Amino acid sequence: MPGESDIAIRARGLTKCFGSLRAVDDVNLTVTRRQVYGFLGPNGSGKSTSIRMLCGLLTPTAGEIEVLGLRIPEQAEELRRHIGYMTQQFSLFADLTLRENLEFLAAVQDLPRREAEQRVDELLHEYHFEGRADQLAGTMSGGQKQRLALAGSVIHKPELLFLDEPTSAVDPESRRDFWEKLFELADAGTTILVSSHYMDEAERCHRLAILDRGRLVADGSPAELTGALAGRTLEVRAEQPRQAKRVLVQVPGVLSAAQIGNSLRVLCEESGDCRARIEQAFADAGVSATVTPIAPSLEDVFVAATNRPADQLATEAP
Question: Which intervals hold domain ABC transporter (predicted)?
Answer without folding.
Answer: 9-238
